[in-house]
Amino acid sequence: MSFIQALLLGIIQGITEFLPVSSSGHLAIIENLFKIETDTGLLFNTIIHLGTLTAIFIAFRQDVKKLLLEGCKSLYDIYGNVWTYFHNRHQQDAKRYKKIISNNYRKLLLLLFVSTVPTAFLGFLLQNVVEQAGKNLLAPAMGLFITGILLLVVDFFPAGKKIPKDVTYSIAFLLGICQGIAVFPGISRAGITIAVCLLCGFNRKFAVKYSFLMAIPAMLGAALLELFQFSYTGDNVQTMALAVFAAAVAGVVGYFCIKGMLAVMRKKRFRIFSVYCFLLGIVAIVCNFI
C-alpha cells in the first residue's frame, strides 16, 4: 500500500463514517477495485476507524465528559448503597438508599452499556465472516442495498420525541444488535442505528447523538481485540504506519462531516443517501463481473 492509497482511504473513511452510506463498504470496494493490499486484514480497518472515533470524542466532548463524571458518581452511590445495606442489617436501622439512575446522563450511560453487550458478541462471532466478505464486491453491494432500503423507509416516518428517560433497555439491546450487524461491509453503522432509533421514536437530535456515542465502546473494543491478536513483523510495520496516517486523515475529515450529518438530520433527506447506496451497490456488482 502506498502513501497516496492510505491518504485516499483516510479521506473516504472520514467522509463516509458519519454519513449513512457505510464506510466499511466503501473501503472494501476501493480496496478491491484498486487492488490495495493492507497486509493486516481487519486491523487496518479497525485502526482507521479509531481516527473517526477521535472525531466523535472531540465533537461530543461535553457529553463524553458528563457521561464519565456521572459514571464515577454512580459507582460512588453504589458503594454507598452497599454500605447502607450492611449498616441497616447490623444496626437494625432504616437509612435510605440513594437512587442510582437519577438523571438523563446516568440513564444514557446504562443504555449505552446495554447496547454494547450484543454488539461485542456479534462483532466477535462474525469476525471471520466479515474478513472474508470484505475480499469481494458482491458482499458490500448486498449490504449497501440493505442500507438503502432502511434509509428509504425511515424518511417516511414522523419525528419522535423520546429522550433517554423514555427509552427502554430492550430498545437499547435491539440497537446493539443492529450495530453488531453493521460490521458486515456495506451495512452502514450510522445508517442502521440512526434509522432504528427514529423508527423507535427517538428525538432526531438524540438519535444522532446516541448512534455516535454507542460507537465509542464498540470501536475501542474492536481495536483492543485486533491489537491483541495481531503479530507484528518487519513486513507489516510500514503498513501499520500508513494505517495510523490514514486514521489521522480520517479523524480530521470526519470531524467536519459530523456537522454535515447533523444538518441532514434537521432537513430529513435520507432518501438522497438511499439512492446513492443503491447506485453504488449496482456499480459494485457490475465491477465484480467485469
Note the main attributes of this structure.
single chain; 290 residues; 0% strand; globular
Mean pLDDT: 87
Give the low-confidence spans.
none
The end-to-end distance, rounded to whole angstroms, is 23 Å
Summed up, the helix count is: 13
What level of helicity do the residues show? over 70%
- Count of strand segments: 0
Structural class: mainly alpha
Number of domains in the coordinates?
Answer: 1
Rg, rounded, reads 21 Å
Task: Report the portion of residues in β strands.
Answer: under 5%
Q: Biggest sheet, in brief?
A: none
Give the SSE string. Answer: HHHHHHHHHHHHH
Shape: globular
Transmembrane segments: 42-60, 108-126, 138-157, 169-187, 207-228, 240-264, 270-289
Family: Belongs to the UppP family.
Function: Catalyzes the dephosphorylation of undecaprenyl diphosphate (UPP). Confers resistance to bacitracin.
GO biological process, one term: cell wall organization
Short description:
Helix content is 76%, strand content 0%. The chain contains 13 helices and no strands.
Task: Furnish the topology, listing elements before pairings.
Blueprint: H1 3-16, H2 23-33, H3 42-59, H4 61-91, H5 104-125, H6 127-133, H7 138-154, H8 169-181, H9 189-199, H10 204-213, H11 215-229, H12 237-267, H13 270-289
Pfam families: BacA
Function: Catalyzes the dephosphorylation of undecaprenyl diphosphate (UPP). Confers resistance to bacitracin.
Enzyme class: hydrolase
